[in-house]
Amino acid sequence: MKKMSLASYVGILTGFLMLLSVHNVWAIPAFARKYQTSCVTCHAPFPTLTAVGESFRLNGYKLPNDELYVKDKPVSMGAEAYKKMFPDSVWPSDIPWMPPVSILVNSNITTNFNGPETKKTKFNLPSDASILAAGTLGDDISFFTELAFDNADSSSKVNAWLMYQGLGSKLFGDNHLNIKAGTVGDQELGLPNARNPGKFSNSDYLYHQALAIDSHPGMELNGFGQIWRYAAGIVESDTTQNKKDYYAAFSLKFGGLGYSGINSKSASEEGISSSPTGYWRDDSIRMGVFAYRGFKDKDPDNAETYDRFGGDIRVNYSDLSLVGGYAYGKDRSITFNEDFPEQNIWFGEVDYYIFPWLIGFSRYESITTSNSDNSDENYSDRARIVPGFILLARANVKATLEAQFYTKDKFATAADHDTSFYNNMSFSLNWAY
Predict the structure, then answer these.
(1) Domain regions of the chain by residue span
(2) Which CATH code fits 6-432?
């Protein structure tokens, strides 16, 4: 039996200790095991998706001609011949042979440059944790489940959805009409080409923070073709009234790998491969729009409706990616027939792959609010620059150094120093297993 070196023992111990800290990102290494391929096949780096990864996500966690590339053969839940016996038999399916479970980790250290004298440096070790399971159940059903733990407030949350693909495929075409039920909207709410779950930075997009839209229990219709994709859903609202929220998103792509993934150059009959020197490259132009109408209770006696919409464009060329977008938000009190200040949010970002393992990024974001209320953080004018670097120590281990510099901040400093906007720097360590 081959003896393990001291370095091997140290590596195992380090990996075990890192299990104590996890972050809610959308990298699922169970797929790397299923297809025996690197995380960078689908991520650039995680949780940001490559063109192959986006096609894989849209297609319900499958590749075109998926059976050619699967190395972890599924367990049959009925013979193929049962299809001919339907409705006198249960429709056959399959489940993954190995449990498709993954663990995702985040730890960070944040230092404020200004603000309170106490707690300027914070050790979030760990910050939160997620256990994920995702995969397929036969040819036309996919699933996702997340159990998330947040260390900040000692809370936990369960997200899950089930999607059936190819409704009316003979009439509409393959994957043109799919239906998803469960916790929906996470990948569709917000600017289509600058989705918050796929951001480079640790910090959320400012438009995502200000507009306060998130996934909810509900149902979604979605579909995609070679150059287009769409989603529309109805979800539970944050109000005691009998009302529901609605959303829609649409995106177009010109050049590069299409959303359908049918012209993928990263797949072959021998399996999936990804160039180690250019896994992120996808020379293309993408543009999209989204809209959201929601309802919430500001307090027990004050019901509100709120509107959100926006658009963005992303240009990828070689090692450079440029993205810019605009988002708008407006709230209105139904109870008192009163309008709240409008919010106009602009941003621009540049990402550059210096090496396959080193990426630099910088983003400028600005919020302008009509009748800005400097005593309310939610309706204050502000702008900031978010520069940073990402280092991939391994395909599934990522370190990020990031800063936030506010160039405009009209929000009055609170006496308790908890709600002002502070310039800060953070270092984070993410890994997925």
Answers:
(1) 6-432
(2) 2.40.160.10
